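SEQUENCE-TO-STRUCTURE ENTRY
===========================
Question of interest: how does this chain fold, as expressed in backbone structure tokens?
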Amino acid sequence: MRRPTTAVAAVGLLLALTACQSGAASGRVQGTDAELACAALSRLPEPLPGTDAGKAFEIAVVRLAGAEELARAAALTDAKFQPLADTLRKAHDLLNVTSDPQQAEPEIKKARTYC
């Protein structure tokens, strides 16, 4: 199953990008899991690129996976983040199953409202 590898890579990439963007000289990532999930979500283009967009599509999938995993961690810490985690899981699952960004767009839009 490819999902765990993708998720681990996505979270690692997301954390590295967030550390760089936070300007923290110490290298510490700042923000809660929910804040980082929302930051990853905000980096998704609107609309999502199609599979014919090559690398842009792959980057969007990885960012979505990272946002999903961070939201899941946030929900494990505090149940108030469960709707965000569930919505991102559904969006990621739809994208994985259909490879059609238009199928995932409504869930991504809904997830943005939780941020």
